[in-house]
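queue> holo job accepted (adenosine-5-diphosphoribose)
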Amino acid sequence: MSKKKIVVLTGAGISAESGLKTFRDSDGLWEGYKVTDVATPRAWKKDPAMVLDFYNQRRKNVLEAQPNAAHIGLAKLQDDFDVTIITQNIDDLHERAGSKKILHLHGEIFKMRSEFDESLVYDIRDDIKLGDKAEDGAQLRPNIVWFEEPVPMIQLAVPVVLSADIFVVVGTSLVVYPAAGLVDYAPMDIPKYVIDKVIPRTDNVYNVTNIEKPATQGIQDLIELLKSQ
Ligand code: APR
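queue> job finished
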C-alpha cells in the first residue's frame, strides 16, 4: 500500500528551541536589526558589507545549532508516511534531522550566488566578504529570497500542497506571502494541524486541529494523533 502523503509547512518557530531566533517574537527586531534593513535588495545596494556580515553571523548561529525534537519527529514520520517539508527557514536543521524531501522557499544560508546570475550558486560554509566573487566576476550574495524579491520555489510548492492527504503547519506567523498563502491550497477536506506557541490566523481553514504548544511538544502530540487514526 502506498504511504499517505503528509505535507508540512514550517517557519522560524520550529527552530526556536534549537536556539535560533524567530523574526517577529522580539519587537520585529532580529539580532538587533530590523529585517527590512538587511533583507532587501535596497539594503544590499546601500551597504553590502553590512548585509554580508549579518548573514555571516547567522551562518555561524546555524552551524552551532542542533536539530530539536520537532525536526527529528518530522524525520521519523517518514517511516510511516510520504513526508514533504516546505520550509521558510534558511537553516539546514530539517536536513540534519534526516528529512529527505525538503523545499526551501526562501533559500539556504549555506548557499551563495552571483549577485547578477541566479544560476551561479555555490555551497559555502565560511564567512564571505566584499570582493569574494562568483565565476562571472560578480560579487557573491546570499542565495536567499529577500523582501520584495520573487519566490520561484512557490511554483513547486503549490502542486505539493494540492496533492497532500494531511497538511501540517508548524511555527510560522503566516504573515509573509506567498508562503502564507499555501495554506489555502490544501484540499478542503483533508485533516490539517497547526502547531504553534501562539496559533496564527486559521479562521478560514476547514477541518483544522490547533495544537497550541511549543514545536517539540506539539510534534509529539501530532505523532500520537496520527497513530490513533
Ligand atoms: N514552538 C512553536 N512555535 C513557536 C515557537 C516554538 N518554540 N517559538 C515561536 N513560535 C512561533 C511564533 O508564535 C510565530 O507564530 O513561530 C512563529 C514565528 O513567526 P515569524 O517570526 O514571523 O517567522 P516566520 O513565519 O517563519 O517568518 C516568515 O518572514 O522575515 C521573513 O523570510 C523570513 O522566512 C521568514 C518569513
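queue> The radius of gyration is 18 Å.
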